[in-house]
Amino acid sequence: MAASNQTVRAPGRGAATRRRRKSFVERTIAELSGAMERALYAEELARADGLLQRLDPRVKVVGLLALIVAAALAHNILVILALFGVALVLALLSHVPFRTLATRVWVGALLFTGMLALPAIFITPGQPLYRLPLLGWPITAQGLSSAAYLVTRVETAATLSLLLILCTPWTHVLKALRVLRVPVVFVVILGMTFRYIFLMLQTARDMFESRQSRMVGTLAGPERRRLAAASVGVLLSKTLNLSGDVYMAMQSRGFRGEVYTLDEFAMQVRDWLALAGFVALAALAFWLGR
């Protein structure tokens, strides 16, 4: 029998070969490492010298939110597509690769929204354009239109939201939300979640790497499930203990429910111009798409 880490020949398949499947532990370690690498990549993009990176975080939050609202309220698909084009231009000027948008937003949003919109193509009453062979289900023009509106709105809103996250340090986003009077509880939950989810990812990866270093051979299915359940339990226990320790440490350092950052925001001329541009573009889209 071939070694486990070598390419082996599938029985009865001639020249067809298949590679050894990664174990549960290996796949988990790879996924945890990938999540942390994506977070580091987002931090690097937020420090790049692009158009959105140079703007005040408050301008980006207000401006991109206005464009998202305009896309959600538009009743003209050309207006929604135009806003999607604006998002692409902003991504290009902010040095955000289209591949990053495609892998993180476009494919997932298209698949998820497409599954939700698929029934509307058949059940929405209207003018039949085509009937599926055998099933006889009608595809209506109104159903296609509804699905297209849903998919384009979601793609546009998700792209604009991701641009805000990729082009702004997370602490600045939280501070901008507080400046805009978002409840402090919501901001604190977001900040703590973002901070400690990566700490728990690191802890989980260390646990699986430690387990992997002591393993010989391949675990059977029941053993893999037992390992996964035990790891989840240990990680949950560590999370609960850490939450109590962090809260006590914050209280001892003077935390009384407000979020402070060392960076002070200062609006410059370009920020005011950008804010006016965002508001004007959103108003124009709302007027054309009404």
Quick overview:
This protein is mainly alpha-helical and 290 residues long.
Count the helices. How many?
Answer: 9
Rg over CA atoms, rounded to whole Å, is 25 Å
Mean pLDDT: 80
Structural class: mainly alpha
Strand order of the largest sheet: 1-2
The share of residues in helices is 55-70%
Task: Kindly describe this structure.
This protein is mainly alpha-helical and 290 residues long. It has helices at residues 24-46, 57-73, 77-93, 98-123, 141-166, 170-179, 184-213, 221-252, 269-288, and strands at residues 8-9, 17-18, 128-131, 138-140. It has a two-stranded antiparallel ribbon. A hairpin with a 6-residue loop joins strand 3 (128-131) and strand 4 (138-140). Helix 3 packs parallel to helix 5. 20% of the residues are buried. Residues 1-17 have low confidence and may be disordered.
What's the arrangement of secondary structure elements?
Layout: E1 8-9, E2 17-18, H1 24-46, H2 57-73, H3 77-93, H4 98-123, E3 128-131, E4 138-140, H5 141-166, H6 170-179, H7 184-213, H8 221-252, H9 269-288
Antiparallel strand pairs: 1-2, 3-4
Helix pairs in contact: 1-7, 2-5, 2-9, 3-5, 4-5, 6-7
